[in-house]
Amino acid sequence: MIPLDVFGSESLAADLLEQVRWRDGVECPRCRSDRTVKNGSYGAFQRYLCKNCDRTFNDKTGTIFAHSKVALRKWLFSIYAFLRFNTSLRQLQREIGVTYKTMHRRVERFTRALDAPQLDLVGPVEIDEVYVSAGLKGRERDQPSRSRGLSTRGRGSYEGDKPPVFTIVDRGTGQRYVVPAKSADESTVRLLLAGHEEESLTVYTDGFRAYDPLEDDDEFHREYVVHGDGEYADGDVHVNTCESHASLARRWLSPHRGVSKDKLTQYLRAFQLRSELFRKPGREALKHAVEATL
Ligand SMILES: [Zn+2]
């Protein structure tokens, strides 16, 4: 259920932020002291006085929502629609009546605040790579437009505006990850698979040579299918779940046509967050999204 009440009332939006932000108690954002007292209000937001450093702050201070003339309820709506419905920034900008620049800046702030996913792998794990068309949007205005979107044909490179993106599916935990990389080589693969507890992690891959060194390593048990030979699955050995997850990522990126490669990480982190809150009810999903930025 969409939390429409929050999007319609600034004080309910403020309540939601307050609940998420101070879930472990109120703390001064400047000196981290918990010796705080309520001290009037700042619009719809509670204001506090820190008895340690003697400065005031409010619910928004130090968050991505601070210093905005636009109501919090509108930003919460934007984040919700962005994550839930894959709404483009152009559309959002029209919906809430701000300039594209304002919308872009605020969503950028949101995506930048998201942490890299922690890969604690249990296994068996599928790993696969795709290449994304992502150039330097806005800095190469005179260049002819390139084809956009994810492509699996051919090997790309970060320098050549086709950065590799790895999809990893942990069949042990059910977690799925999408992680962009500078290059699709052995060291990147090792880095991605490093976080595992078991002595030997079972890894399913295709025949791409960057995965070959895993075979000589006791830490991994690698099995693979060779797509070039018309082989797509051999019992449990396949990367089909990776491929379907990659196609979801492709759809996620498509309304944001031409995400530049330096922003790709941020957009894919937002996609990761979207997957995490996919099954949560509206209000919980919104709280989770806000919490992820704190
Ligand atoms: Zn303080």
UniProtKB/TrEMBL annotation:
Q: What is this protein called?
A: ISH4-type transposase
The ISXO2-like transposase domain sits at 120-276
Q: Which PANTHER family match?
A: INSERTION ELEMENT IS1 1 PROTEIN INSB-RELATED (PTHR33293)
Any Pfam family from its record, for instance, is DDE_Tnp_IS1595
Q: Where is the composition biased (Low complexity)?
A: 146-155
Per the record, which residues fall in region Disordered? 138-165
- The source's superkingdom equals Archaea
Q: Which SMART domains match?
A: DDE_Tnp_IS1595
Q: Which organism is it from?
A: Haloferax prahovense (strain DSM 18310 / JCM 13924 / TL6)
High-level lineage: Archaea, Methanobacteriati, Methanobacteriota, Stenosarchaea group, Halobacteria
